[in-house]
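Quick one:
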Amino acid sequence: NNNYGNIIYKQAAPPIQPVKTPPVPPPPPPGFVGRANELATLKKLITAKTSAAVFGPEGIGKSALLKKAATDNATPNGVVFVEGADGNGTALGLDDVVQSLFDQLFVSTPKRKVTVASARPHLSNTRPLVLLDGLQLSPAALETIAGLFPQSPKLIAGKMVLGNIARPLKLNPLPRADAVNLIRSRLGLTEGTPLPLLEPICQLLGDVPLAITTVADAMIANNLAPDLV
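Output:
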């Protein structure tokens, strides 16, 4: 190799500007039912700029609750939202999450690649509602992300209790009446439709929202009557 060196041209980094329109919250799932107490609790925490960690088993409705709470409590500063995986199902790392949060609030041409350190001066001066849903990161990494938004409330959904980062809020199965209303809504039935078999179906499914919506979709797709289900 007879290459004895390279010329490096130092250029200024691309200018960074806040987005013109604050990001909007993700739409809540259609036919959202119940969770009045949990929504009231989250509303108080968001108003007080206190973070909350919604935890519980798979299918219990953590993501739906976060989106509904964000829609009901959207602020002029916007809502930033990051899910745990990209479109291909690959889990996001810490740098990926920070980049996504930065890109929702700032623009630059060409696109600026950021790290935790370089994003902190920009993100720390913003006040959006921050939604972190199902991130497969350590508590230390989640604490790092939360620290980037010292002036913002954060809603974090996952399986872990994050007491040192956010106030824990355990999500349980739906009350039976709400479970019946959920399957009724999913099936497109009016509230007064007399279908007594819906309650036993919800009981067998443990009143778990994802199980209920999955079975309701199967009933529609296969034209199944409640007694067969």
